Amino acid sequence: MGKLDNKVAVVSGAARGQGRSHAVNLAAEGASIIALDICADLEGNTYPLARPEDLDETARLVEKEAVRCHTAIVDVRERSAVWKAIEDGVGELGHIDIVVANAGICAMGTGQTLQSWSDTIDTDLVGVFNVIQASLPHVNDGASIIATGSLAAQLGSATNQGPGGSAYSLAKQIVARYVNDLSVQLAKRMIRVNAVHPTNVNTDMLHNEGMYKVFRPDLKSPTREEAEASFPAMQAMPVPYIEPQDVSNAVVFLASDDSRYITGIQLRVDAGGFVKAKPWKG
């Protein structure tokens, strides 16, 4: 018996990283999965994104948990495409009980352009809107909606990090406000709406040259080892980053009845990154 037996979850950005981890962990608790991912690169992003074979591997790992997985290669920036992908998933799996709007990019370092701003806003903000809004006609009463934010949303703007970094911070801040306000609108149906805000996570979004240069601007071409020496500066706890599993633990909690009266919260999984950066305001 799992905490999510007979439930269906939509997960965007499911081909790898946090999205794959969320999909597999939800499946391990009994949920069937509608897994969405673009499986292609974006012009304005500064590191490679997932590929179709990555999404296939997510499906294999989900189905290994003895549940079903409907996959769709879809760009979350495209409203009509997202609506169709989710309708197709519901046509196969029947309904939606959990929505995890997770797909995101973070274009940092050299190579950023104005397209980096547009692609980031359209993926990290519009993409969250599209996935959640497309799911709303299908969600059951008592459902759980979870958006992936970021510690960056809690720390304020990042206009000194180029168009990609600035857009990332802005998008995540608005996602936090969206979750807050939507939770009130859906509360009468016992539908919960929450956000998780991770610090650095051990995924491809963190491990790329652009991000390494953010942490080691003193070096022309920092290696992973050189960048990791600076990663712990983000957190109060002496760790360079957290693992996708650490975020998935929070996602499963928010998806399950263990959190049945928790809605509208901004759940930081940040190893103390926020409390280190922001003084207490009583």
From TrEMBL:
Keyword terms of this UniProt record: NAD, Oxidoreductase
Matching InterPro entries: NAD(P)-bd_dom_sf (IPR036291), SDR_fam (IPR002347), SDR_subfam_1 (IPR023985)
Domain of life assignment: Bacteria
Sections of the chain in a coiled coil: none
Signal peptide start and end residues: none
Gene Ontology molecular functions: oxidoreductase activity, acting on the CH-OH group of donors, NAD or NADP as acceptor
Family in the record: Belongs to the short-chain dehydrogenases/reductases (SDR) family.
NCBIfam families according to UniProt: SDR_subfam_1
Record-given protein name: SDR family mycofactocin-dependent oxidoreductase
Species of provenance: Mycolicibacterium moriokaense
Lineage summary: Bacteria, Bacillati, Actinomycetota, Actinomycetes, Mycobacteriales
